[in-house]
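Action item from last meeting closed. Structure (204 res):
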């Protein structure tokens, strides 16, 4: 079967948004996968609002994520995270980046399935380590063996992430390239022709 010819950018966006309706595009995956960076780029490409659930949690709680972990523990943080994400999902369409543990909650997954299209940004261990080692605000990595922690999280979470609607492999490439691949995957999932990417969207 021949592939559909690519839609011009503006027509493609309109077609995608029509199929998307009120659903949100929800990024899931481990810390360091690039959910926020790629999510912002996809939101720009599709002219949709972008929301980072961790930033929203910090806004409503007036505390940082590490502070919430330290003061209340992970179970309380996850409960707050779930409430925030369920509220955000009522306001689609939008692009929503979620914390690494959010998709592990069954109720959150059900809400995302009902009100969104989930996109797993799948990354290998070396890439994740390279990225998270540059940041000091990762509560789950306050451990003498962060690589071991990440390996354990991959073993626990990747089978659940794999139930997302879409899987896009991320790598050490320009975020514009990965974002374009996400949009192409969304087009295929929604049954529309791919959106032609203009040169200025992929140039560094």
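Sequence:
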């Amino acid at each position: 079967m021949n592939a559909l010819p690519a839609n011009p950018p503006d027509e493609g966006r309109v077609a995608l948004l029509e199929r998307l309706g009120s659903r949100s595009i929800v990024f899931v995956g481990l810390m360091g996968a690039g959910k926020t960076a790629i999510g912002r780029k996809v939101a720009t490409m599709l002219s949709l609002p972008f929301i980072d659930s961790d930033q929203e949690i910090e806004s409503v709680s007036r505390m940082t994520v590490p502070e919430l972990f330290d003061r209340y523990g992970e179970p309380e943080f996850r409960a707050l995270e779930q409430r925030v994400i369920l509220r955000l999902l009522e306001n689609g369409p939008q692009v929503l980046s979620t914390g690494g543990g959010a998709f592990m909650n069954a109720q959150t997954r059900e809400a995302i399935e009902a009100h969104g299209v989930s996109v797993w940004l799948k990354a290998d261990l070396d890439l994740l380590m390279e990225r998270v080692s540059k940041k000091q605000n990762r509560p789950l990595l306050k451990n003498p063996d962060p690589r071991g922690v990440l390996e354990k999280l991959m073993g626990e979470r990747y089978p659940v992430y794999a139930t997302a609607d879409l899987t896009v492999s991320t790598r050490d490439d320009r975020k514009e390239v990965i974002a374009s691949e996400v949009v192409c995957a969304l087009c295929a999932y929604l049954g529309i022709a791919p959106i032609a990417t203009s040169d200025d969207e992929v140039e560094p």
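Note appended to the action item: The longest helix spans residues 65-88.
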